[in-house]
Structures are given as C-alpha cells and as structure tokens.
Amino acid sequence: MIDSHSHTYYSKHATGSVDELARASIAAGVNILTITDHAPFPVDADNRLLASELDRYFDDIEEARMAYEGQITILRGLEFDYMPGTESFTRDLLARYPLDFAIGSVHYVEVPGEPTVKVWELPRLAAEAFLDRYFANLEGLVACGLFDAVGHADTLLRSLPEDVFLRRFEPLLAPLVRSGMAFELNASGLRKSSLAPLTGQEVQGLWSYPSQGLVPSLIALDVPFTIGSDTHAPKDAGAGVAELMSVLRPLGLGRISYYRGRRRVEVDMETLLPEVKSTTLGQGAPRP
User: Fold this and answer.
1) What digits encode the pLDDT tens for the residues 240-254?
2) Mean pLDDT, residues 6-20
3) How far from the centroid of its chain's Cα atoms is residue 245's Cα?
4) Which terminus in the chain has less CB density within 10 A, N or C?
C-alpha cells in the first residue's frame, strides 16, 4: 500500500507524532509512507508547521525512517498552500529543504469584498465568485511549476454537484497534461461530511471525492495519479486507500505513482491489488 498524504501534530489541527504515524502505518499495511505536514505559509499559521519547526520535523522523519527500515519506506514531504503571489515564498522553502514530494493545494480563496473562504466552509463553496477564484487559483497552481501533484482539487464535491465541478475543471485538463503533474486521489473524501444534494444538510457517509466522473478523463490523457489517506490521526493511517483503488480500478486506473527525490515512481495496480474483487463501497452514495 502507498500512502502519499499524511499529517502529524506538526500541522496543529492533526494528532500523533511522526513515530506514532509510522507505527500505525505499518500496522495498517502501508509499505510506502510520505509524511506531508502543512508547510509554513503567510496565511493561517495556527494550522501548519512553523518555519522554526522544520528542522525538527525533518529530523523526526529521518529518525523514523532509520528506526523502521525494512518494515516501511518513509519519505519526506510537505503539503504547500497556493495563493497567487506566494510563489517566491514557496520557492525559497523548496530551495532550503530537499524533499521527496511536494503537494500543492488550495485551502484558502480570497473573494473581493468577503472574508477569505476556506474550502471546508461547505455552504460558501457554490457561490459563483468563489468558484471563479478557486479555479483561477488551481490554474495558477498548475502553471507555477513548483509542485509534483495537485492535492484534493475535487474537494469542492463536498457541496458542489459533480456536473458543475466537471464543467469548471475541463479548461484545466490541457494545462495539467502539459505540466506533467500528478492528480491526487485523496481518500479522505470517503470519511468527510458533505452536503446532501436534496436537503443541503451536512451528512456523513456519502462519497464526496475523488470525482468518479473526472478520473476516466484523466486516465485517457495519461495524467499520473498519486494516492493518500490524508490522515490527520494515527488511527486513520492508510484509511480508504485500498478501498479507493478497488472502486477506481474498473474505470481504467492502471498505475499509481509516488515520488522519491521529486522523481515520479510508477507502480502497477496488479502489484498493489493483485486479488482485488468488486466492492460495494459507496453504492448509493456517489455525488450526482
């Protein structure tokens, strides 16, 4: 099992040490773990690593890597935020700290005349002004050339109809292909709440993301995929990764990638799920 998106208490809103996450991942059957705590950023310092913590963070990863060598491969990563104008800040961090994997994600969107929208504020995600800015930010993220993968780009499906998301994402397909970036299959969409399509009430247990409508288009364009649990607690190490691959494999998903030294490594699905059978996960629950 490959888990290329995971968090520890360094992200402030997550729990568990690097060592606890490593041990929980081994117990969950993860073979390749990339730890990707939220990188320092000018916005929302209470929910991420501080610059003063980076050396200790990477030391903890190295200690775990050596302690569990032979049981699990542990790689150095960060999840970076992207907003227009922050490219120099991120470029400086990348120059100072060698990584295996850099995820670029959009968590905060500035909408004129409004407080900054956070992508977990579900009732605010369907507004046209927000959508215009969100997808413009995604375009900038893809174009800047700083990241290996775009993280949970389809998280808006927690409150947005899939046809709206697909229509908005379509202009990004060609830039994504040109960039060579991977698209993340983020398994936390199996665990997070979403707004019920008919009532608009926040509910648990519905498949929100990744988009099952988008994946075949990305496969047809030979866009690479990474996969991750996006765990924020050791108990969720590897959560949903195998189930997600089981559901997406019939759509044509043939390979999963991970990154070592910022270089993509592809693994065939036959290696990851040699005996997988069809699953009922998400039946009756996918977004329309």
Assistant:
1) 999 999 999 999 999
2) 98
3) 15
4) C
pLDDT tens per residue, range 174-198: 999 999 999 999 999 999 999 987 7
C-alpha 31/C-alpha 123 separation (Å) is 38
Contact, 15 vs 234, CB < 8 A?
Answer: yes
CA 231 – CA 54 distance, rounded (Å): 20
Q: How far apart are CA 158 and CA 48, in angstroms?
A: 23
CATH class of 2-272: alpha beta
User: Is pLDDT at 82 greater than 60 in this prediction?
Assistant: yes
Q: Which residue from 228, 47, 61, 48 is spatially nearest to 150, judged by alpha carbons?
A: 228
Res 275: pLDDT? 52
Residue 258 pLDDT greater than 50, yes or no:
yes
Q: Measure the N-to-C terminal CA separation of the chain; round to a whole number of Å.
A: 29
Q: Give yes or no for a contact between 47 and 12, defined as CB atoms under 8 angstroms apart.
A: yes
φ, ψ at 205 (rounded to 5°): 90, 0
234 contact partners, CB below 8 Å, separation of at least 6: 15, 16, 20, 21, 23, 24
DSSP the chain: -EE--B--GGGSSS-S-HHHHHHHHHHHT-SEEEEEEEPP-SS-GGGS--GGGHHHHHHHHHHHHHHTTTT-EEEEEEEEE--TT-HHHHHHHHHHS--SEEEEE--EE--TTSPPEETT-GGGTT-HHHHHHHHHHHHHHHHH---SEE--TTGGGGTS-HHHHHHHHGGGHHHHHHHT-EEEEEGGGGTS-EE-TTT--EESS---SS-TTTHHHHHHTT--EEEE--BSSGGGTTTTHHHHHHHHGGGT--EEEEEETTEEEEEEHHHH-TT-----TTTT-S--
Mean pLDDT within 265-283: 65
